[in-house]
Amino acid sequence: MNEKASVSKELNVKHTKILEGLLKLPENRECADCWNKAPRWASVNLGIFICMQCSGIHRSLGVHISKVRSTTLDTWLPEQVAFMQSMGNEKSNRYWEAELPPNFDRSGIEKFIRAKYEEKKWVAQNATQPTPKPGEMSSNLDKFLEGGARSGIPNKTRRLSLEEEILTNHLAQVTHPVTRYRGSSLDMKNKINISPPKGSPLITEFDTSATKTNGPTDLFSLLHVPDGKQDCSTVPPRWATFD
Q: CA-to-CA distance for 136 and 143, rounded, in angstroms?
């Protein structure tokens, strides 16, 4: 199942607003690599905001290094937004550019980006790459969803799995049972109505009130269904009227 399909329209709108707010922070107003103004793209696993030119170079690195998303065009998952909230350009570059010389020439931007992320050329020795930890991501996601609940967006935004949908429908039927009759209806007072197939000549209504007072003869008349082509006045066999 495509995970993006689990993001509702309302949740996607909230993601966009959060990303817009992150882009307004001072540390995110410039591309993390080339310093161009107003970046509108991001690497969701590096936690950085980048410009369109650098986003193309990041795509060429492969998704095992950088996963690129548009902040305005793509659908984001909650955990991706939570990681961007916990990172940002400044925090990420403290790892990737820890040993980068001051005023380093970035004119050959593709060569710079490949040296930065593929070769890890300026990463400090024994430094650990910041990545979303399961516990931290869960905590950030919980806070994020709580914020969504306060803003009027329901917490339950993902689609139900097949098993959950079946269970939900079952519980709904138990709580609000619906009696269904297939082709017949029952009048509990004195009549049984049977809906025959189309074109059938059978008599479909029987009076059951006679069973309260009459004997075997009336019981036969209740059970006997005369053929539409027969003469209903035909005298029944002797055993049927035997007292």
A: 11
Higher-pLDDT residue of 151 and 239 is 239
pLDDT in tens, 83-108: 999 999 999 999 999 999 998 999 99
Phi-psi domain of 88 (left: phi exceeds 0; alpha: psi -120 through 50; beta: other): left
pLDDT one-digit tens code per residue, 142-169: 554 455 433 333 444 444 445 555 555 6
**Backbone Cα Rg of the chain:** 37
* DSSP conformation letters of the chain: --GGGGS-HHHHHHHHHHHHHHHTSGGGSB-TTT--BS--EEETTTTEEE-HHHHHHHHHH-TTT--EEETTTS---HHHHHHHHH--HHHHHHHHTTTPPTT---SSHHHHHIIIIIS-TTPPTT-------HHHHHHHHHHHHHHHHHTT--S--SPPPHHHHHHHHHHHHHHS-----SSEEEETTTEEEE-PPTT-----EEE-GGGGT--HHHHHHHH----TTS-TTPPPPHHHH--
pLDDT digits (tens, 9 = 90+) for 176-232: 544 444 444 444 444 445 555 555 554 444 444 444 444 545 544 555 555 555 554
Its sign, for the CA torsion 67, 24, 83, 138, is negative
CA within 13 Å, CB half, 199: 0
Give φ, ψ of 118 to 5 degrees.
Answer: -80, -50
Residue (of 119, 160, 132) closest to 47 by Cα position: 132
